[in-house]
Design goal:
With 119 residues, the chain is mostly helical. The chain contains two helices and two strands, in the order αββα. Strand 1 and strand 2 (60-64) form a beta hairpin. Helix 1 (2-46) runs antiparallel to helix 2. It comes from Rhizophlyctis rosea.
């Protein structure tokens, strides 16, 4: 009975680890997008006032208003930054859950070993 409960806890722990990995991967992807958008923003700062800005839509370059393009990039940076903060909070919560689950499993494992030694 105790061994089955330990096995169930182990599976729950592994599921937590898989979910944690997915969240970390999402955060990494967002970090990459943030860096890319920050580079675009810096490039906009280097442009002359009369420079023409184009946006790639599918296989076509479409002329875009510079102010609109700059605003869009800044909004994207704000959104990505807020998503990264949300994911970091989620990562911290998941780390705490994993640590708690790991501690519980160690206690269960010690209890199981004690039972086996007594038997």
């Amino acid at each position: 009975m105790a061994a089955a409960k330990f096995e169930a806890e182990m599976q729950a722990f592994q599921a937590l680890q898989r979910e944690f990995t997915k969240v970390v991967q999402s955060r990494t992807q967002l970090e990459s997008q943030l860096k890319e958008n920050e580079m675009v923003s810096k490039e906009f700062d280097l442009l002359k006032d009369d420079a023409t800005v184009y946006k790639l839509i599918g296989p076509v370059l479409v002329k875009q208003d510079r102010a609109e393009a700059t605003t869009n990039v800044k909004k994207r940076i704000e959104f990505i930054t807020s998503e990264i903060k949300r994911l970091e909070k989620q990562i911290n919560e998941m780390e705490e859950k994993q640590e708690k689950k790991r501690s519980e499993m160690m206690q269960m494992q010690q209890a199981l070993q004690a039972q086996r030694q007594q038997a």
